[in-house]
Amino acid sequence: MDRDKILVTAGCSFSDGAPFIKENTYRKTWTNYIKEKYNFKKYVHTAQPASGNEIIAERVIYALQTLLDSGHSPDNLYAGIMWSGIERKDLFVSLRETPDYKNIYQKDGNNAPLIVKSSINTNVMDLRDKKHPSETFPDMSPTMHIDRGNIRSGGLPYKDDWWKNKPQRDYFNLWYDNFYSVEKQFIDTLKSILLVQTFCERHNIKYFMSVWQNIFSANNAVGGLPPKAYSTTYEVSRLKPLYVDVYKHTSKYLWNGLDFDKFVFFENKEVVYGGLTEYAVINELEFWEDNGHVCYDGHKIFIDEYSKQIEKLWKIK
Fold first, then answer.
1. Contact call for residues 86 and 189 (beta carbons, < 8 A)
2. Domain extent listing, the chain
């Protein structure tokens, strides 16, 4: 890649494996590898652990629009997005309008990473071209609003022992108890994907999409969340109904509007619409100690496996 090309990546912990040091570089992800593989000198990384699909869409569009507003040509922008679980919800809270905001916002123990200080937060990994230090990116450092922002559920919050901030968990449980439905979460995920695709197509930005694991197949004929795949198991998704068929009256129009040719899926005789997790399980790749996240070597193998498809979508080589 020449020095004008910019990589923009988005996702959850499968795209941002939390802080890593020399002793735990296995927590690097595909975003690190794809930057190195295609020699991007400039890159903007928007992924954060526990993110839901709405905030993933919001962050990547913010990053891309900021680059466009700063005069960067869409011809030089390359995006990669890995979508997360549909059960995750990101709730916007503010000092002015959210009761008990100060306790909900409070950082506490392992729960601290769930706070996003701005709904348009991006995590910039490199603000300048190292060979041309006078040339810098537009300011996309995290907007440090202490009076508003998003909190991320990371999934169903009910029984998480590590969730140290009780007011925040109670706030999420209030939402999940009263407003959560798998159907609406699926609809919102389709809307998020369609929003990013429409934005990229409008501006002629080259992009590819993937998933952390299958997020399109239901658990049974009436819906329900599919079991999460771990390092020793995976879901035989070809035997499951698609959410779009279960919820066809409310989601079919969105489903039909998506361009699935922009996705990199892992599929075989048992798996359809699969992602990094199923690929890693079936190919017996190494996982973290949590048995849920794929180690860096697995991310590299996954990207290499689908590099020709990615290169076609990015129109390179």
1. yes
2. 6-314
Quote the tokens at residue 172: 């999420």
Which pLDDT value is given to residue 103? 84
The predicted model scores a pTM of 0.90
Instruction: Give SS3 for 60.
Output: helix
Is residue 162 scored above 90 in pLDDT? no
Q: Cα–chain-centroid distance for residue 275? A: 12
Q: Which two tokens stand for residue 261?
A: 């040719």
User: Tell me: the pLDDT tens digits for 33-80?
Assistant: 999 999 999 999 999 888 999 999 999 999 999 999 999 999 999 999
The b/e string for 238-261 (b: 16+ C-beta within 10 A; e otherwise) is: eebebbbebbeeebeebbeebeee
Q: Which amino acid is at 55?
A: I
Spell out the long-range contacts of 112-115 with Cβ–Cβ below 8 A and sequence spacing 24 or more. Answer: 113/18, 113/48, 113/49, 113/50, 114/50, 114/151, 114/152, 114/153, 114/154, 114/165, 114/168, 115/149, 115/151
